[in-house]
């Protein structure tokens, strides 16, 4: 009975939502106005809403009720009480492989065009697997900071928390697990997506003669709350770090995290880098984790997939070029430029690297599309370039 009521509430919510704010904020505002919903109600209503958005642009003509139920079936990894109440037959099949479930619903994976802009994807991405991956919620990942590996693993095992380590120092955990209950955030571990951690592979390619210079200067140009800065300082603790962002408020978050992490020595700058480059000495490494469509992260925020206007791709690509153009003015000759996006679109990735190479003497040291969609993680792109 409750399940049917939650399903109806969720249907109203997804049909009222217009994409102006992240859906999580919209839902939070709704729940704070409707206190009658307890935690189980909120969980089931959210589950229905996200299942609806996970269907993306697939089969546009089906009624919303059917879309939501299909989304619940496809996104379930095991039987659950909500699906049992709504469709016992589908619930019994919830644990099957996704391709089988799609078949049971009378569709084929090819017909399920959840993500329609496949011709715009970066080349190595398997467009069908990428499209389908939006049905499944990504995992929670943490990164273990240097010197804490043994104790973190010990605590996970002591507390019987199921985990895997798909990449050195990267731990995958069940969604909904609150790492703050068991670990000192930012000191022992950092909450950071697997693919974001994998961009650190680029740092390992910086040669010794660069990072052993007495003044090895690093500028994290679009630092936000400092995920890449912390990753970089864990690799190069002696470096002189500058962080910048257009939003001072997010740099306040960075300051809090750095304090927790024990990082005290850095310079902070608020700047709109699409307009100008701040007055800084020449840097040996500049990291630009640029503003982008975020199309590699939509399995976390599937509503964005539903409301996306592809005209934004060109606007972001242009913004990425203007920021890169300005910050490259501060790169020392022989220095390294690490270009990063969490986008799956070629225009924001390989095409922009080609453009940069046409306008600056840059050679690509290593470039990679990180297909996180195969590991329930974000998809990202990085290119490590050297100014010749
Ligand atoms: C993808 S996020 C960076 C994430 C961060 N590096 C991390 O690992 O957590 C991009 C950041 O670029 C910032 N940004 C957007 N436009 C900018 C501009 N014109 N100048 C400087 N920063 C900008 C945004 O405020 C945002 O925090």
Automatic annotation (TrEMBL):
<dbReference type="GO" id="GO:0001510">
    <property type="term" value="P:RNA methylation"/>
</dbReference>
<keyword id="KW-0694">RNA-binding</keyword>
<dbReference type="Pfam" id="PF01189">
    <property type="entry name" value="Methyltr_RsmB-F"/>
</dbReference>
<dbReference type="InterPro" id="IPR023267">
    <property type="entry name" value="RCMT"/>
</dbReference>
<feature type="active site" description="Nucleophile">
    <location>
        <position position="342"/>
    </location>
</feature>
<keyword id="KW-0949">S-adenosyl-L-methionine</keyword>
<feature type="binding site">
    <location>
        <position position="272"/>
    </location>
    <ligand>
        <name>S-adenosyl-L-methionine</name>
    </ligand>
</feature>
<feature type="binding site">
    <location>
        <position position="245"/>
    </location>
    <ligand>
        <name>S-adenosyl-L-methionine</name>
    </ligand>
</feature>
<dbReference type="GO" id="GO:0008173">
    <property type="term" value="F:RNA methyltransferase activity"/>
</dbReference>
<keyword id="KW-0489">Methyltransferase</keyword>
<dbReference type="GO" id="GO:0003723">
    <property type="term" value="F:RNA binding"/>
</dbReference>
<keyword id="KW-0808">Transferase</keyword>
<comment type="similarity">
    <text>Belongs to the class I-like SAM-binding methyltransferase superfamily. RsmB/NOP family.</text>
</comment>
<feature type="binding site">
    <location>
        <position position="289"/>
    </location>
    <ligand>
        <name>S-adenosyl-L-methionine</name>
    </ligand>
</feature>
<protein>
    <submittedName>
        <fullName>Putative methyltransferase</fullName>
    </submittedName>
</protein>
<dbReference type="InterPro" id="IPR029063">
    <property type="entry name" value="SAM-dependent_MTases_sf"/>
</dbReference>
<dbReference type="InterPro" id="IPR001678">
    <property type="entry name" value="MeTrfase_RsmB-F_NOP2_dom"/>
</dbReference>
<dbReference type="InterPro" id="IPR049560">
    <property type="entry name" value="MeTrfase_RsmB-F_NOP2_cat"/>
</dbReference>
<feature type="domain" description="SAM-dependent MTase RsmB/NOP-type">
    <location>
        <begin position="106"/>
        <end position="388"/>
    </location>
</feature>
């Amino acid at each position: 009975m409750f399940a049917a009521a939650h399903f109806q509430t969720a249907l109203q919510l997804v049909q009222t939502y217009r994409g102006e704010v992240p859906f999580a904020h919209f839902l939070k505002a709704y729940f704070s106005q409707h206190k009658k919903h307890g935690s189980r109600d909120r969980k089931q209503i959210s589950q229905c809403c996200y299942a609806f958005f996970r269907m993306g642009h697939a089969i546009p003509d089906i009624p919303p009720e059917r879309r939501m139920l299909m989304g619940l079936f496809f996104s379930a990894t095991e039987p659950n009480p909500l699906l049992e109440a709504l469709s016992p037959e589908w619930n019994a099949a919830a644990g099957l492989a996704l391709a089988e479930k799609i078949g049971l619903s009378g569709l084929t994976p090819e017909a399920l065009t959840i993500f329609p802009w496949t011709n715009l994807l970066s080349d190595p991405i398997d467009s069908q697997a990428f499209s389908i991956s939006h049905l499944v919620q990504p995992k929670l990942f943490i990164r273990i900071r240097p010197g804490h590996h043994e104790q973190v693993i010990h605590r996970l095992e002591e507390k019987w928390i199921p985990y895997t380590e798909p990449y050195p120092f990267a731990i995958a955990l069940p969604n909904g697990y609150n790492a703050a209950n068991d670990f000192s955030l930012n000191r022992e571990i950092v909450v950071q997506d697997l693919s974001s951690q994998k961009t650190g592979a680029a740092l390992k390619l910086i040669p010794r003669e660069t990072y052993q210079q007495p003044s090895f200067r690093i500028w994290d140009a679009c630092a936000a709350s400092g995920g890449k800065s912390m990753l970089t300082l864990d690799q190069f603790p002696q470096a002189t770090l500058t962080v910048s962002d257009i939003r001072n408020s997010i740099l306040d978050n960075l300051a809090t995290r750095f304090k927790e992490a024990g990082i005290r020595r850095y310079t902070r700058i608020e700047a709109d880098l699409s307009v100008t480059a701040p007055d800084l000495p020449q840097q040996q490494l500049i990291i630009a984790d640029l503003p982008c469509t975020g199309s590699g992260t939509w399995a976390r925020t599937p509503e964005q997939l539903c409301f996306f206007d592809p005209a934004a791709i060109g606007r972001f690509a242009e913004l990425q070029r203007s920021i890169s153009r300005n910050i490259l003015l501060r790169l020392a000759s022989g220095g390294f430029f690490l270009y990063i996006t969490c986008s799956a679109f070629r225009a924001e990735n390989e095409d922009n690297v080609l453009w940069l190479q046409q306008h600056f003497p840059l050679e690509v040291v290593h470039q990679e599309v990180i297909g996180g969609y195969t590991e329930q993680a974000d998809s990202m792109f990085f290119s490590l370039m050297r100014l010749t």
